[in-house]
Amino acid sequence: MHSLICNGTPQVLERDDSIQPGIDKDYKTPNIPTLYAVKGAFGKILFYELKVKDFLIRYHLFELKENLNINIIGETNLPEIFIPLWAPFSYHLDDHGPIDMHLSQYSIRYLSRYNWHAFIPKTKQPSLLSVHFPYSFLQTLTGIFPQLQHFSANVAKGRLSIVSGDGLAFATTPMLQEAKKMLHCQLHTPELKELLLECILKAFLLDGTENLVQPRSTKATWRRKGERYGPLGKVAI
């Protein structure tokens, strides 16, 4: 797990299931039990994490009372698809530079050791979804999509690398549906839930990789009853 600094103050990130989101937005809150949290004058940040065999789902939920300058430092040994939900997200990554992401844009990246900084306004709070996958599955993807060969070689050498295609790609509707399923899976039998999540994760990664190297998407929306979420946020339908 990483360390973080919020508005200039170092935070202690601890596992704490007692800190729950106060927002009345159930579509933002995942059905994932492992929860790390920090809270302060700025509000709350909830870090959800779920391991599915050799895959890892990480989901960051912000509930801010004021604008937030956040700095996150950590390391990872897995490549990932990274996508902001509900709002745009801009951040500065050391050894790379600034990255601006519109709502539902994403990239495949491998960060190894990382240090990134972001300014998150109270009025536009994203949720950040990362789906990490093992090198063995990256090799499978590379066999299907040879455009990943350079990225795969960088991962093997432990080098920071980001695949963003011709600019950052937009998530397709199937990708957002798969993201919703993995975050809200309700099966109570652990074995069945793990099997279903593994299938959803692999479908999400395959769809995301194909769309990134062979772009076909427009700005997809994430629907729930009575509303539509797209690049401009929520509109009534």
Unreliable stretches (pLDDT < 50, length at least 5) are: 217-237
Strand content: 35-45%
Number of domains: 1
> What is the average of the pLDDT values?
84
User: Which value, in Å, is the CA radius of gyration?
Assistant: 17 Å
Give the SSE string.
Answer: EEEEEEEEEEEEEHHEEHHEEE
Can you say what the CATH homologous superfamily is? Jelly Rolls
Do you know the CATH topology? Jelly Rolls
| Cα-to-Cα separation, first versus last residue | 40 Å
* Structural class based on helices, strands and sheet pairing: alpha+beta
What is the tally of beta strands? 18
Major sheet size, sense and barrel closure: 9 strands, antiparallel
Count of helical stretches? 4
Shape: globular
Helical percentage: 10-25%
The CATH architecture: Sandwich
CATH class: Mainly Beta
